[in-house]
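Table 4 source record.
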Amino acid sequence: MIPRSALVLGLSGLLPFFWGVATLLSPALAQLTLDVIGPRFIGPYVLIAYGVVILCFMSGVLWGFAARGAEMAWTGYALSVGPALWAFFFVGGGATQALTALITGFVVLLVIDLQFSRWGLTPRWWMQLRLILTSGVVLCLAAGLWLG
């Protein structure tokens, strides 16, 4: 079972993704956001910026897991830097390219999560949480592609 704190905080981490989609669906909300806090927090801009932050954050989480597996340290560390490097090198070139690269990055991240789980480096509940969160992220990023 996923610990309540991990589930609640993980789900709260989806809020900026939901916000980005909401501003794409509601011109009034987009305008209010623009007026109050600026264009960086609207539609594809917030989806891309926050997507990069979270993909890089997850690289750090994987690095921590890799540190637990001394017998496969090189492989674990190499895999753990992948999502951050992916974001650095491939997120850019306009909203369509960036959102597509982020979707790919999060799907590949899920595969890396699964491998770390198979190696016994993650908590038992990790994949259940990652499936929930990755689904939410990918759906929001895909909505950004379709609506943007």
